[in-house]
Design a protein that fits this description.
mainly alpha; two-stranded antiparallel ribbon; 3 helices; 2 strands
């Protein structure tokens, strides 16, 4: 958990807020114009994986991170929990795909 948190902290910029929400799950809240969010999220994910790759080079046990992303949609989201649930579902799909490799 500490290594994952370090990779996330390495990637999250000062304008983004990262939280450990329980167990081995983390959330990064990214704000800004809706049109720029997919690019901002992609940049964060690239940085997380780069930081993780550097960490893995120094450790015998290789760490991987499954990720999911959801963007607030005022037409379908009434609460932040609904956005989180969509991102969580995508993360579990990613995790399942990673395990099948």
């Amino acid at each position: 958990i500490r290594r994952a948190a370090d990779a996330i902290a390495c990637a999250a910029e000062k304008s983004h807020t990262a939280y450990r929400i329980g167990g081995d799950e983390f959330v990064i809240l990214v704000t800004g114009p809706a049109s720029l969010l997919p690019d901002a999220v992609r940049d964060i994910l690239v940085k997380i994986h780069a930081c993780l790759d550097q960490d893995n080079q120094k450790n015998e046990i290789q760490l991987s991170i499954a990720t999911g992303f959801a963007q607030y949609d005022p037409d379908q989201d009434k609460t932040l929990i609904e956005v989180y649930r969509r991102a969580d579902q995508l993360m579990y799909e990613t995790k399942k795909a990673m395990k099948s490799k």
